[in-house]
């Protein structure tokens, strides 16, 4: 059944390409189509990732080939030459180029390219294909190219008899097969249509000879083999200038074939509920098209309809595809005369059915699925293809889709989160006085976390937002703008210009720009674009934490000294143990440690067996990541505790702690804590309460920062 359908479709496509003034070449054209079906069908059947696949020349590319053949035929005939060798060369060359591209894409594993093609563009291509199939069906049935100028001829009584039955059949097939789905329905209706044609012919008293004279049959054809279409010596008559003039259409054929095979493969995945290796399909079809091009065949690839039909019929092996190819090959040996009596209205009706299917899917069904802007793009591409040609339609679709994408993407806010310095802090512990200062003056720091790909649309939005903040004095003037690039994928050249303008605005308003977590490529772009330009108003830091620390230090440096005294360990302990006597008793369980700068207190992964109280100096906790990278967790100063979590939980150290400058510590070992619990339980209880309050305070600060970042 698949072989019969493929052979019928091959004849139909050949009739589409070799119509009008090229009808005399139709026998050879049928041979080319059948040869392509046989070669491509066999090779793809053996190499495809889907075993029951059917591959053959398809209507998408045949429509463009018909346009090319018609143009070449008109030009060369006008010059008194024979256009057929050039048309054969175009068919073979398009198959060779397409096969080569398929092999390259499959070898580079670029089958997923189809995921990046916007549906409106694909829909516009399919709609244009449907329209050209529809108009091509009229040309097949009447023998005259469909155009506004030919309308008077098409409306003559003798022409209406030729195309109205085919149009009626095509519309009937479209309506019936959209409602009912059975793999035998289409073949059965085609057989019935052929029988109906001859039944009406004989009932009206007509004869086959009269039908041939009226152009209602494909023939008469000369006897003889259908292949090869021409002798090697005829290659000398190929007009390469005409082929060069149609290079754009050849490119359109290749691109359309690439899009179609990937879309057909994706559709077959959905229809069969099986995964298909797109790269393998490209490689197998590439080899098949190279062989078809060398054998004077046409471009072909996976057929969604016949392959789905095989699946519904229960085919599971490669025999179906191989047998289909063998049927097409066998048809080559019977000569063209066997097809002479095939009714043109039936072939025309089949083309109407194919074209109407594309038009209904893209113009009717899409009306209910697509946004109006995207639907409008489908219609625009259809109009351009119908009015000018396939290649301009492709170009318009790509350009308009790119503009729509840019407009829609620019609506996405480049600013993922916004905060001020009083809401988000660095991982540096500050004294009570410094904390109070940062709380009061934190709004001098404006923090923006950026996201996505920054281009001209989104960068202008960012520029306006920051400029508005710079001009605002409520409730405090902005002195620092921190831009975090951790979630930025990249920027384009127009965005660089926006950042240069942003730097100039910052300089004029006395604002310092702080950029953190810049990808190296983004930083290089900014520096090449003159963003930094040696300005002291631009600062770069490896991460958000260090950028926040620098801004906090600058805010504290510019603020009046705090009236609160600096934090001291003794003062903290007195607030815990109430009296100096209890503090002295507690210190008896501690070991004093004096460490130089850069001294490692403990390492990530060590056994937790003690904790440390900081009397003076500064410590930093680092998280060691894969690849030798580190991340600062917290910087701690006098009056705080480090290492308490591991000791209390009995786990290994979660981070590495190192001194930043000479530091004095008091070490409380696990043994000393247990001894204090036995000997002075009131001291142990007070110390446990102190640690609990410290942990609760850290939790509150961390929760506040998280709410600011994630809300």
From TrEMBL:
Alphabetical list of SMART domains matching this protein: cNMP
Matching Gene3D superfamilies: Jelly Rolls, STAS domain
Topology versus the membrane: Multi-pass membrane protein
STAS domain span: 447-551
Family matches, as InterPro entries: cNMP-bd_CS, cNMP-bd_dom, cNMP-bd_dom_sf, Membrane-Transporter-like, RmlC-like_jellyroll, SLC26A/SulP_dom, STAS_dom, STAS_dom_sf
Domain of life: Bacteria
Pfam family, one: Sulfate_transp
Membrane-traversing stretches: 29-50, 62-78, 84-105, 117-140, 160-177, 184-204, 250-272, 284-304, 319-339, 346-364, 376-407
Domain Cyclic nucleotide-binding: 586-676
Keyword terms, alphabetized: Membrane, Transmembrane, Transmembrane helix
Location within or outside the cell: Membrane
Name of the protein this chain belongs to: SulP family inorganic anion transporter
Organism: Polyangium sorediatum
Lineage of producing organism: Bacteria, Pseudomonadati, Myxococcota, Polyangia, Polyangiales
């Amino acid at each position: 059944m698949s072989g019969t359908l493929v052979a019928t479709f091959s004849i139909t496509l050949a009739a589409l390409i070799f119509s009008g003034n090229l009808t005399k070449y139709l026998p050879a054209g049928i041979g080319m189509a059948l040869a392509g079906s046989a070669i491509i069908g066999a090779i793809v059947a053996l190499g495809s990732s889907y075993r029951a696949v059917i591959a053959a020349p398809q209507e998408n590319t045949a429509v463009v080939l018909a346009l090319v053949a018609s143009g070449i035929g008109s030009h060369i005939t006008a010059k008194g030459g024979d256009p057929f060798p050039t048309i054969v060369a175009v068919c073979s060359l398009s198959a060779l180029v397409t096969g080569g591209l398929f092999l390259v894409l499959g070898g580079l594993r670029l089958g997923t390219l189809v995921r990046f093609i916007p549906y409106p563009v694909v829909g516009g291509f399919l709609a244009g294909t449907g329209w050209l199939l529809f108009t091509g069906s009229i040309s097949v049935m009447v023998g005259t190219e469909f155009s506004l100028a030919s309308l008077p001829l098409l409306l003559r009584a003798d022409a209406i008899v030729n195309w109205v039955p085919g149009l009626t059949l095509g519309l009937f097939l479209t309506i019936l097969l959209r409602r009912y789905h059975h793999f035998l329905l289409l073949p059965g209706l085609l057989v019935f249509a052929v029988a109906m044609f001859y039944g009406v012919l004989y009932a009206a008293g007509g004869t086959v000879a009269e039908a041939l004279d009226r152009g209602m049959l494909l023939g008469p054809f000369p006897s003889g083999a259908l292949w090869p279409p021409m002798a090697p010596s005829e290659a000398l008559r190929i007009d390469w200038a005409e082929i060069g003039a149609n290079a754009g259409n050849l490119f359109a054929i290749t691109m359309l074939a690439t899009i179609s095979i990937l879309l057909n493969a994706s559709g077959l995945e959905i229809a069969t509920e099986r995964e298909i290796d797109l790269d393998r399909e490209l490689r197998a079809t590439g080899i098949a098209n190279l062989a078809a091009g060398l054998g004077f065949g046409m471009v072909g690839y996976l057929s969604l309809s016949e392959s789905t039909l095989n699946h519904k019929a229960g085919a599971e092996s490669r025999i179906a595809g191989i047998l289909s190819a063998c049927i097409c090959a066998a048809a080559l040996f019977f000569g063209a005369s066997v097809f002479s009596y095939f009714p043109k209205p039936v072939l025309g009706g089949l083309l109407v059915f194919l074209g109407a299917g594309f038009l209904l899917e893209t113009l009717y069904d899409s009306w209910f699925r697509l946004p109006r802007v995207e639907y409008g793009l489908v219609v625009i591409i259809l109009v351009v293809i119908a009015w000018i040609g396939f290649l301009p339609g492709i170009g318009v679709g790509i350009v308009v889709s790119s503009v729509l994408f840019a407009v829609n993407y620019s609506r996405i806010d480049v600013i993922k989160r916004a905060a001020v310095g009083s809401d988000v802090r660095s991982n540096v512990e500050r004294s009570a006085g410094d904390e109070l200062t940062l709380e009061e003056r934190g709004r001098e720091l404006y923090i923006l976390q950026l996201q996505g790909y920054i281009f001209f649309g989104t960068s202008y939005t960012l520029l306006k937002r920051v400029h508005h903040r710079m001009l605002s004095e409520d409730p405090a003037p902005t002195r620092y703008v921190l831009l975090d690039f951790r979630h930025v994928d990249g920027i384009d050249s127009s965005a660089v210009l926006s950042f240069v303008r942003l730097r100039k605005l910052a300089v004029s308003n006395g604002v310092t720009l702080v950029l953190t977590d810049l990808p190296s490529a983004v930083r290089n772009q900014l520096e090449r674009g003159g963003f930094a330009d040696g300005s002291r108003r631009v600062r770069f830091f490896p991460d958000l934490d260090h950028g926040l620390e620098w801004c906090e230090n600058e805010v504290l440096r510019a603020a009046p000294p705090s009236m609160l005294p600096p934090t001291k360990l003794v003062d903290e302990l007195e607030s815990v143990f109430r009296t100096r006597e209890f503090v002295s008793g507690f210190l008896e369980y501690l070991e004093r440690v004096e460490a130089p700068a850069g001294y490692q207190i403990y390492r990530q992964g060590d056994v937790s067996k003690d904790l440390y109280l900081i009397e003076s100096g500064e410590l930093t906790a680092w998280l060691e990541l894969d690849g030798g990278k580190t991340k600062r967790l917290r910087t701690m100063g006098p009056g705080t505790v480090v290492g308490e979590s591991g000791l209390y939980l009995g786990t290994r150290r979660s981070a590495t702690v190192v001194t930043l400058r000479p530091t004095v510590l008091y070490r409380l070992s696990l043994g000393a804590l247990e001894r204090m619990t036995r000997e002075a339980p009131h001291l142990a209880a007070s110390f446990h309460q102190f640690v609990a309050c410290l942990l609760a305070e850290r939790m509150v600060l961390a929760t506040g920062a998280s709410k600011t970042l994630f809300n």
